[in-house]
Amino acid sequence: MELIQQTPDIAAYLAADEAIDHDHPQVSGVAAELASRADDAYTYARTAFAYVRDTIPHSADSGDPRVTWRASDVLATRTGICYAKSIALTALLRAHAIPAGLCYQRLTDDDGTNPVVHGLVALRLPGRDRWARVDPRGNRPGVDARFSLDTERLAWAVREELGEIDYPALHATPPAAVLHALRSAQGRTELWRMLPTQL
């Protein structure tokens, strides 16, 4: 998948903002702990991916009603949907000076109904000339996402015949539609009704 940077300046994919708040002590603390177990950027990125994927349950799997949207809150409460978990992983990567951004898929049910936008992360490690997508959503039966820079191992591959889409845009900040849903919903049940169906 060839991604298109929405912002040409790579520095935008290292910056902190209100959601990707890697300057927050909660994020920098987790990043420092993960860095203590990694001797290079690749190992750190793989460790951060596994941390978000495996230790922060997706709220749909766990039944947690809370809605998180800041990286620091996701890491503190250990809950979030795919958008929130992607924001958290992006923040952890940027905290270690690894350019990272947000990218998305449009997925549907098996009959092509009930479209929803699914959040992913793309990162660019030193010495590599391309972005690599990873999916920190969290595994469950039938979902086996892995950290892989050369062959994508996402939770889901798009089915174009059902109208599913791999969006090529690489966002430095969460899109307005994603942030609006996360910030406005009073709980996960309400959030499900507000999730964007396309970008």
TrEMBL record:
Entries under InterPro entries matching the protein = Papain-like_cys_pep_sf, Transglutaminase-like
Every Transglutaminase-like domain range:
30-136
Q: Which residues cross the membrane?
A: none
Q: Which Pfam families match?
A: Transglut_core (PF01841)
Q: What is this protein called?
A: Transglutaminase
Q: Which organism is it from?
A: Streptomyces nanshensis
